[in-house]
Write a structure and sequence with these properties.
Pfam families: Glyco_trans_1_4. One of its GO terms (molecular function) is glycosyltransferase activity. Helix 10 packs across helix 14. A seven-stranded parallel beta sheet has the order 3-2-1-4-5-6-7, sandwiched between helices. A six-stranded parallel beta sheet has the order 10-9-8-11-12-13, with helices on both faces. It contains 16 helices and 13 strands. The longest helix is centred in the middle third of the chain and has 22 residues. The chain is globular, with a radius of gyration of 22 Å. It has two domains: 215 residues, Rossmann fold (3-Layer(aba) Sandwich); 154 residues, Glycogen Phosphorylase B (Rossmann fold). By secondary structure, the chain is of the alpha/beta class.
Length: 404
């Protein structure tokens, strides 16, 4: 095997949000197989501060600054007939670096992380192509449009992204999705004549890092009553909708009966999320240096997502911390755990209230379910176990060229 070109739409360090966690571990797995050249985007100073960590694992790097305003990306998308998602991540400097790297280095495999980066793959490349779409992103925009959220814009984005996803699946030797439901959805959108190789490459969790026995005893909550916690990137629309749903439809009864408080923990909260923090019983923490104390001190972790594509890292991390998770069916997608044994699925708001009441009144043993959850993810969904799948994606014979 030669060398690998890895293209990711976000800097894989630090692994502090869902897509970055996945790309981070995918990169680490690839680096075990062969030298990896990395092209990516930096969005924040925090990204740039981790350049040294990326340098330690990569053979070469091009880190483009993602500074293009969304309005400009929208104009470019309309003029070019492309999705806004592609226009937002198009950079001439990165395009030039990709072309030069492919010409100068012995690269026989290109691994593309997320559909936005497929535009950088030249038609002339005749080596092996692996595309990790994670999930069928077009379906998310279609759902936004169906819900009446900027319907024309999101319908256009969904339609054009669906065409790009089909193009990439036809172009790739292997297209990876995060769960069987996402893989089945993509297969249903592609003609059987395309003979696309679509496989599942699941998400994992670092069970050594997310471990309730790590000695993180400092509880961040002063409140002595039940502390219910939601974690996630808080400028991501499905997360915003989830915390608004919980605050207005679930929390009031729990706060009145049990003095429960709701804690929203995660980076970049929107103005609407900050407004929730002004309500009684709701605290918006924003970004925190370490999520583990917030999870470890939670009475329960909630994930009432209505739109959820792929596997939710927030759920895996809470399970690894031996917390009881009460979640929607959508948030449970792609996690082959058992309802009632490893977490509790609530199919509507009333069910979520009921299951949390069962916990708070002692009819459910949250500690026992949390312990089962921890054992499940340690056995079935650790990143170390998932690393073994990467060689089969990249190398048809599954051999490790560095170990050979």
């Amino acid at each position: 095997m030669g060398e690998i070109l890895f293209l990711a739409h976000r800097m894989p360090f630090p692994p502090n949000r869902g897509d970055k966690i996945r790309s981070h571990h995918l990169l680490k797995a690839l680096a075990r197989l062969a030298p990896v050249h990395v092209g990516t985007f930096a969005e924040t100073q925090e990204d740039r501060d981790h350049h040294g960590e990326l340098s330690a694992i990569a053979a070469s790097i091009h880190m483009a600054d993602r500074t293009k305003p969304l309005v400009l990306a929208g104009i470019q998308a309309v003029l070019s007939g492309k999705p806004v998602s592609l226009a937002a991540f198009h950079d001439r400097g990165l395009q030039s670096w990709v072309e030069q790297t492919l010409a100068a280095q012995p690269i026989d495999t290109v691994v593309i992380f997320s559909g936005q980066m497929g535009q950088y793959l030249p038609d002339s490349f005749d080596g092996r192509v692996i595309i990790d779409l994670c999930d069928v992103d077009s379906a998310k925009f279609e759902a936004y449009a169906e819900a009446g959220n900027m319907a024309w814009i999101n319908a256009r984005e969904g339609r054009l992204l669906a065409a790009e996803e089909e193009r990439l699946a036809r172009r790739a030797d292997v297209t990876a999705l995060i769960s069987e439901s996402e893989a089945a959805l993509l297969r249903s959108r592609i003609s059987p004549r395309a003979e696309a190789d679509i496989r599942v490459f699941g998400n994992g969790v670092d069970t050594q890092f997310f471990d309730p026995a790590t000695g993180l005893d400092q509880a961040p909550y002063d409140h002595r009553g039940p502390n219910l916690v939601f974690t996630g990137q808080m400028d991501y629309a499905p997360n915003v909708a989830a915390v608004e749903r919980f605050t207005h439809r679930v929390l009031p009864e729990l706060a009145a009966r049990y003095d429960a408080q709701f804690h929203i923990v995660g980076r970049a909260p929107t103005d609407s999320v900050h407004e929730l923090g002004k309500l009684p019983g709701v605290t918006v923490w924003g970004g925190v240096p370490d999520m583990r104390p917030f999870l470890g001190a939670a009475t329960a972790v909630v994930a009432p997502l209505s739109i959820a594509r792929g596997v939710q890292n927030k759920v895996l991390e809470a399970m690894a911390m031996a917390r009881l998770v009460v979640l929607s069916e959508e948030a449970a997608t792609g996690i082959p755990a058992q309802d009632g044994q490893h977490f509790l699925i609530a199919r509507d708001d009333a069910a979520m209230v009921s299951k949390l009441r069962d916990l708070l009144e002692g009819r459910r043993d949250g500690r026992a379910i949390g312990a089962e959850a921890r054992q499940f993810v340690a056995n079935e969904m650790s990143w170390e176990a998932i690393y073994e799948q990467v060689a089969t994606l990249v190398q048809p014979d599954g051999k490790n060229s560095r170990a050979a």
